[in-house]
Specification:
The structure holds 3 protein chains of 3 kinds. Chain A has helices spanning 7-15, 44-57, 89-103, 105-109, 127-142, 152-158, 186-199, 245-251, 314-327, 376-389, 403-406, 412-416, and strands at residues 34-40, 62-65, 81-82, 120-124, 148-150, 174-178, 182-183, 203-205, 210-215, 222-227, 230-239, 259-268, 278-281, 286-290, 296-302, 335-346, 353-356, 362-366. Chain A is an alpha/beta fold. Chain B contains 1 helix and 6 strands, in the order E-E-E-H-E-E-E. Chain B has a 4-stranded antiparallel beta sheet with strand order 3-4-5-6, with no helix packed on it. Chain B is mainly beta. The two termini of chain B are 22 Å apart. Chain B has one domain (3-82): 2-Layer Sandwich (Folate-binding fold). In chain B, a hairpin with a 5-residue loop joins strand 5 (66-72) and strand 6. Chain C is of the alpha+beta class. Among the domains of chain C are: 1-154, Roll (Ubiquitin-like (UB roll)), CATH 3.10.20.440; 159-273 and 402-445, FAD/NAD(P)-binding domain, CATH 3.50.50.60; 276-400, FAD/NAD(P)-binding domain (3-Layer(bba) Sandwich); 448-532, Arc Repressor Mutant, subunit A (Orthogonal Bundle), CATH 1.10.10; 840-934, Aminomethyltransferase beta-barrel domains (Elongation Factor Tu (Ef-tu), domain 3). In chain C, helix 12 packs across helix 14. The longest helix of chain C is centred in the C-terminal third of the chain and has 15 residues, at 677-691. The chains are: A alpha/beta, B mainly beta, C alpha+beta. Chains in contact: A-B, A-C, B-C. Chains B and C meet through helix 1 of B and helix 20 and helix 24 of C. Chain B: It holds the Pfam family SoxD. Chain B: InterPro entries: SoxD (IPR006279), SoxD_sf (IPR038561). Chain B: This is Sarcosine oxidase subunit delta family protein.
């Protein structure tokens, strides 16, 4: 069992040179021959799924298979923005479920995930943006999700580095503020869920790559997975593989409505507190907050072509910093310290897929695109219920795969698209 | 920034081009005759491979033509570009 | 201390500068670092976590400690600048950072006392309470104030940045011995060569010798060679697309230039970085990399100390010690981790005491080192403190061996391979046309193995691996103990290698420490990924000139000049600036809009509609092509006639609308929305080229060719008629087009209306439009802007794609089913309209909404069936004060809306309780269309 985390244990360990800390999670070298449920993918969503399966559904033996190191994919590569001010009620319900779990997550996991509800401000730069964001405010308030409209001066008061001069190319005409939104420490989310899941008996197998999915020759149901650590039998298989989902599902003969794109982010050198909130502009593609360490954390866009290279073009960084310098001109002399890329799996309607598949025993949770981190606890929670009960959790139900056949898509991106 | 060989214009920087998705997806000749599932497969399902990928590009800020390319999605190396209707 | 002679400085040019308000003098050719050292300033900063005193560690780009604030005046203050990379200039103002109240006495250094409570990752284990949001409300603000280094700038940067593209056959990165040789060779072979180097003077370690750098003169004289000093290659992209940042600091305000180089071949000559050594107190000011101390003495004629102790794991340290000795320093002792140092005899011959198999048990001193405890090594490689002897000194040299500098090689997706003999990662396979030359290819010879060095320091206290982030060997060992085995996990848990030097200094040592702690070898442990940029890069350099109006090009309509001169208020619509309204002096915007609306309804108004997209579609199969793309019946459209046309996406949702005019059997003039012009053309080209390649059809964008004046209102015909020749206006019914001369200019004359009034859209070559514009104004037309246009079209129930629609709306939802050609077998999106979801009876449909009280609803308001309802049935898409009707009007999308005319719904408000609206047909003005056809 891992040590309990508290100031007292920290103080006690300080007196004995920290000799008593045990591994935060068990990472067995070899898997057991069989598990009731195997979760494929050791990112935040997969680890959260395993944790809630073990904690709330008590389904027996559970393993998480991770081809590299846990939290090494998009969990450890994103800009950690958390918010739930989505337009459609289905989306708002899903993301707000997550925000409510975020609010108690450090206590739940006994791990400081540094959830910091410092407010997310989304900026409007034209009449169309104003209409769109106000529509969000109306819809969110009705759905019980906090969101408020700020005039430019109020935006400036909330986010002092913002340039609200009417003379800039895309002047700020106002903003929608979700005060419950914020950021969290991404690595801690993966580690905290891993530690808590491990304490409940979940096996976390790192450096374990899945190479095939075994199915019953008669009914087609999933019976196990082939891995770099040998064959593992399982009753149910939950795929939470983000950018690699298409590849894994192809092992079960399924084609997915997904494309994987490189997405970049960057941080500046650390400076003293200068940016108190999270600010986003979808119109000019600027997304920024400041980490507790002091770095400006800046999200960039995706490249135009699909790729698994985890590297992006310098042009994308250029466009991102142009946008940052345009609305935060005091940052022009700041320096980019580090840029990196992840692989995001994008659906046609930019909403995730959570649910069952046409293969018995195979479940999938994917398609989070550029915004999956914020959903981590909610995604794991509803996916765990979906796997345990073999039917979609009510919050997950609208996000089924078959919406692409019926046409009942949840197109948040189109709803926000700038068109005239 | 990729260096892309337009089959009409020769090698040009990526900024002159627009990516246009997976290649060789045939629109059903008679859409009314296909099932909802088959239509959804045409509209939305993509191979999204890790490896060789057949994809479309348009030389938007050049000759304006669409063409096909084979690119490895792990290395982003383009092994061939070819005109529509041609083999790689 | 400045030496009386030598160095590459110009003693005839003294330069004054200040540091923390104290005035000093240096010379041209100094860096800020060398000038401070020359003035005896050794304390230059404080570390990130414990606020421990820090001095210079290096003399180059890898410097982690000597980060200062440079202030060149308002808007030109920048934090975290490496003192080693700042050329001294007259009047330079530098300040230390991350200290309070002063650098010498920093209260936050008390954190050091609590260090046992603050091991790696301590913040994950505590700050969990008390109470809810304890982290956010109580602890995070404290942590944030303690963290961070310098202060962000406070004013916009007035300097300029430039971009340049370049092509060459050979790009050489690093102008040391290997780089200069490679550049000379390539230039002789006829290549265009770019040679860049991050230092202010090219030469690399050749600069340690006096005199001209060999080969540089030949390069400077060769026109095929571009030599770029102070230029850092920071990003290595695919197919040898390399980005360089050149620092100019020109007096005219041009600060930096971004070079983006496509090159056939890259020669990487980036040298090797000296490794520090781990021992207790290895972070004190005065503890320095041996080669850096040598550089200060040789290049800048500065002795960093009078009495030095060398701790050596590599022979290169002896060269440094000898060089310092030659310039007057006393070498108190050489402690060598190796049992049989090869150069011991040479050192002893110089009178230097050498102790083999010795290390440092600890350093002594406060703000500067005053001595070391030299100790023999135990069998496990750790210094035996019990047998330690003190040696006084004011300088400790660390010669820990060398790490080939392969960050860019790694960015080029090259694989690093561990070379046991070199005791380093060396370049392995790489797909790019890239070769490594010099020390980055082969290292600089082995010394005491890094694995043994790390193993000997695992239990040392305060042996720093990452001096900026205060990561010690014990922190790394703790991470391993807690189960963090992947080197990426160790990095993230301890933050080692995440400081502003990005692991250049301590990366290898951290890796070896993690390996030692986990009982693995260095290659088994692997290395972390090298990420761009190579060294920190100004945001402004990447952003370049793309600011203000150049951030995104501004497109203006032909009447823009007139509008500006007449006080128009503009709004951005995509890239366009469109006139929103033309308020008269003292007139409020809403009053101007009302006046403009009434003018159109009562007489005639004039809108510049030139921003609408226009596509000329020509060819024998043009009609068949459009028939297959648009929802409309096109074959039945006769020449001279127009139709309101809709284009869907293949998923059935509305993509764009416009007017399709047939000019001849084989020629169409199609308009699109302002924002949709490019994407409509792209989509049509896609179908023309790839789905229907057999059709003979050509598409040409004519958006910029045609200027469009929309003259709308009951008096439109009489105003326009005198200007027209070749067309009888009265014979031109609604939805027709004719070619005619307007003011003697060939024009296309459309009888169309987006207002519900009699109206014409006159298309002229764009440069001639202002003539017509002024003539129509003179004839009594009132100019109106986009705000009035929005009101006028809403009064008539005309939708705007992007306002009434949002990418989830079908033509049927909008009541536009009549536009769809009934007999058509196929068009883009038709199949999708047959899906179950599109057929649902409860889809949201376009309705008119009439407020039952005096005010307009808010756009975006949610529509509720009853008070207290939690689910919306739709939303308000448009809402305006209608001057013509004398009351507010609105449009909305509402579930089953068309069947609910006469019912009441509630619209949410942000400023109060929901307001009741009556559901009405969406056409408020002239429902019979008499005025349109008048």
């Amino acid at each position: 069992m891992p040590n309990r985390f508290s100031f007292l244990t920290l103080a006690r360990e300080a007196l004995r040179s920290h000799a008593g800390w045990r591994p935060q999670w068990r990472s067995p070298e070899r898997p057991q021959p069989a598990y009731d449920i195997v979760i494929l993918g050791g990112g935040g969503h997969g680890l959260a799924t395993a944790y809630y399966l073990a904690k709330e559904h008590r389904v027996g033996r559970i393993a998480v298979l991770e081809k590299g190191w846990i939290g090494g994919g998009n969990t450890g590569r994103n800009t950690t923005i958390i918010r739930s001010n989505y337009l459609f009620p289905e989306s708002a319900a899903l993301y707000d479920h997550a925000v409510r779990l975020w609010e108690g997550l450090s206590a739940e996991l006994n791990y400081n995930v540094m959830f910091s509800p410092r407010g997310v401000l989304m900026l409007a730069h034209g009449e169309h943006d104003v209409q769109s964001l106000k529509r969000h405010v109306h819809a969110n308030r009705l759905a019980g999700v906090d969101n408020e409209w700020l005039a430019p001066a109020a935006c400036k008061a909330f986010c002092p580095p913002l340039d609200i001069s009417p003379a800039i190319r895309y002047p700020v005409l106002g903003g929608a503020l979700q005060r419950r939104g914020g950021v969290a420490r991404h690595d801690a989310v993966a580690w905290g869920y891993a530690r808590a899941a491990s304490a409940l008996g979940v096996d976390i197998l790192e450096n374990c790559e899945v190479t095939g999915i075994a199915r019953d020759p008669r009914g087609g149901a999933v019976t196990g997975v082939e891995t770099s650590k040998g064959h593992i039998r399982c009753g149910k298989l939950g795929v939470v593989a983000a950018g690699s989902t298409s590849l894994v599902m192809a092992m079960a003969g399924l084609r997915m409505p997904l494309e994987s794109f490189p997405l970049q982010a960057l941080v500046s050198e650390p400076v003293k507190p200068v940016f108190p909130c999270v600010a986003m502009s979808n119109t000019i593609h600027a997304y920024v907050s400041q980490s507790d360490k002091g770095e400006l954390v800046i999200g960039a866009g995706t490249d135009q072509y699909t790729s698994y290279s985890q590297a992006g073009n310098v042009q994308i960084l250029e466009h991102t910093l142009e946008a940052i310098c345009e609305i935060f001109p005091i940052f022009r002399r700041m320096r980019m310290l580090r840029a990196w890329g992840g692989i995001v799996d994008v659906t046609p309607d930019r909403s995730p897929i959570i649910g069952t598949t046409s293969v018995p025993g195979l479940y999938v949770n994917c398609g989070w695109g550029t915004g999956g981190f914020k959903a981590t606890p909610g995604s794991g929670h509803v996916f765990a219920a979906t796997i345990a009960r073999s039917e979609p959790h009510p919050i997950a139900a609208p996000f089924s795969l078959d919406r692409f056949v019926t046409g009942r898509v949840i197109d948040e991106a189109a709803a926000a698209a700038v068109m005239h | 920034m990729l260096l892309i060989a337009c089959p009409w214009c020769g090698p040009r920087p990526e900024m002159e081009f627009r990516h246009a998705g997976e290649a060789h997806l045939a629109r059903p000749a008679d859409p009314a005759a296909v099932s909802d599932a088959a239509w959804a497969a045409y509209l939305y399902e993509r191979s999204n491979p890790r490896g060789e990928h057949a994809e479309r590009w348009r030389h938007l800020h050049g000759c304006g033509r669409f063409f096909n390319a084979r690119r490895h999605t792990l290395t982003d190396r383009i092994s061939a570009t070819y005109k529509p209707g041609e083999a790689p | 201390m400045r030496l009386p002679s030598g160095g590459r400085i110009d003693r005839s040019k003294p330069l004054r500068f200040t540091f923390d308000g104290r005035a000093f003098t240096g010379f041209a050719g100094d860096t800020l670092a060398s000038a401070l050292l020359a003035n005896g300033v050794h304390l230059l900063g404080r570390s990130f976590k414990y606020h421990r005193p820090r001095g210079l560690l290096s003399a180059g780009a890898e410097e982690p400690n000597a980060l200062v604030e440079i202030d060149r005046g308002p808007g030109r203050r920048e934090p975290n600048t490496r003192a080693t990379m700042v050329p001294l200039v007259e009047g330079l103002t530098a300040r230390s950072q991350n200290r309070f109240p002063s650098l010498r006495f920093d209260l936050a250094a008390l954190a050091s006392l609590a260090a046992p409570l603050l091991p790696a990752g301590f913040y994950y284990k505590t700050f969990l309470g008390p109470g809810r949001e304890a982290w956010h409300r109580r602890w995070e603000p404290l942590i944030r104030r303690m963290a961070g280094l310098g202060r962000a700038p406070e004013a916009p940067d007035p300097d300029r940045y430039a971009h340049r593209f370049a092509h060459c056959e050979t790009l050489v990165i690093g102008a040391g011995r290997a780089g200069i040789a490679a550049a000379l060779e390539a230039a002789e072979a006829g290549d265009r060569v770019i040679l860049c180097d991050e230092q202010m003077e090219p030469g690399g370690r050749l600069l340690l010798s006096p005199g001209e750098v060999p080969g540089l003169a030949a390069l400077r004289g060769n026109l095929r060679v571009t030599l770029l000093p102070r230029t850092t290659a920071f990003h290595y992209g695919l197919q040898n697309f390399v980005s360089l940042a050149e620092i100019l600091d020109r007096p005219d305000g041009l600060r930096e230039r971004l070079w983006q180089v496509r090159t056939a071949r890259v020669v990487l000559a980036t040298g090797a970085l000296e490794r520090p050594l781990p021992f207790r107190g290895n972070d004190r000011p005065g503890v320095m990399l041996a080669d850096a101390a040598r550089a200060y003495a040789a290049r800048w004629a500065v002795l960093p100390g009078r009495q030095a102790v060398l701790l050596a794991a590599h022979d290169s340290g002896y060269e440094a010690a000898f060089a310092l000795q030659d310039r007057g320093a006393r070498i108190a002792a050489i402690l060598d981790l190796r049992a049989a140092p090869p150069l011991a005899a040479a050192a002893r011959a110089r009178g230097i005491e050498v102790r083999a198999a010795h290390g440092i048990a600890a350093t002594r001193g406060g703000l500067r080192v005053t001595g070391v405890l030299a100790a023999p090594l135990r069998p496990d490689g750790s210094p035996d403190a019990a047998r330690a002897t003190p040696i006084p000194c004011d300088l400790v040299l660390m010669a820990g061996g060398w790490t080939p500098n392969l960050a860019l090689f790694s960015q080029a997706r090259g694989r690093l391979r561990w070379d046991e003999a070199a005791d380093a990662f060396l370049p392995g396979e790489v797909a790019e046309a890239l070769t490594c030359a010099g020390a980055c290819a082969a290292g600089r010879g082995p010394g005491h193995p890094i694995a043994a060095i790390a193993a000997g320091a695992l239990t040392a206290r305060r042996a720093f691996v990452d001096p900026q982030n205060d990561v010690t060997t014990r922190d790394i060992a703790l991470a391993v103990q807690e189960g963090f085995r992947s080197i990426e996990h160790v990095k993230r848990y301890t933050t080692t290698g995440m400081a502003t030097d990005q692991g250049k200094v301590g990366g290898m040592l951290g890796l070896a420490t993690a390996a030692a702690a986990s009982g693995r070898t260095v290659p088994e442990t692997g290395h972390t990924t090298f990420r761009p940029p190579y060294t920190p890069l100004s945001f402004g350099t990447l952003a370049g000139r793309h600011r203000g109006p150049l951030f995104d090009p501004i497109r203006t309509a032909p009447s823009h000049g007139w509008a500006e001169a007449h006080g128009a208020v503009f709004e951005p619509v995509g890239q366009w600036q469109r006139a929103r309204a033309y308020p008269r002096a003292g007139e409020a915007l809403h009053a101007a809009v009302a006046r403009e609306c009434l003018a159109v309804r009562q007489k005639a108004g004039l809108l510049d509609a030139s921003t609408l997209g226009k596509i000329e579609i020509v060819g024998p199969d043009a009609a068949e092509f459009l028939e297959r793309c648009y929802v409309n019946a096109v074959h039945s459209l006769r020449p001279g006639r127009c139709r309101y046309a809709l284009l869907l996406r293949e998923d059935g949702f509305l993509f764009d609308d416009g007017v399709l005019a047939r000019l001849a059997e084989d020629r169409f003039h199609l308009t699109t929305t302002t924002g949709g012009a490019a994407r409509v053309l792209h989509l049509l080209e896609d179908y023309a080229q790839t789905e229907f390649p057999a059709l003979r059809v050509f598409l040409t964008s004519t958006t910029e060719h045609w200027g469009v004046a929309a003259l709308q209102g009951p008096a439109a015909r009489e105003m326009l008629a005198p200007l027209v020749r070749g067309c009888e206006l009265a014979a031109l019914p609604h939805m027709t087009v004719a070619e005619a001369e307007v003011m003697g200019i060939p024009a296309r004359l459309f009888r169309v209306s987006f207002t519900g009034e009699l109206g014409y859209e006159i298309n002229l070559p764009a440069d001639r439009l202002p003539e017509l514009w002024e003539a129509l104004i003179a004839a009594g037309a009132t100019p109106y802007g986009t705000d009035a246009m929005h009101v006028l079209r809403a009064e008539k129930g005309y939708v705007i794609v992007g306002q009434e629609t949002d990418g989830t709306v079908t033509p049927l939802d909008l009541g536009l089913g009549w536009v769809i050609g009934k007999a058509k077998r196929d068009f883009i999106g038709k199949r999708s309209l047959a899906r179950a979801e599109m057929q649902r009876p409860d889809r949201r449909q376009l309705v008119g909404l009439a407020p039952l009280e005096g005010r307009a609803p808010e756009e975006g308001a949610q529509l509720l069936a009853r008070p207290g309802a939690r689910e919306a049935e739709g939303h308000v898409t448009s809402a305006y004060a209608s001057a013509a009707l004398g009351r507010p009007i609105a449009l909305g999308l509402l579930a089953r809306g068309r069947a609910r005319h006469g019912e009441t719904v509630l619209a949410t408000r942000l400023d109060g309780p929901p307001q009741p609206l009556q559901i009405v047909p969406p056409v408020f003005w002239d429902p019979e269309g008499k005025r349109l056809h008048g």
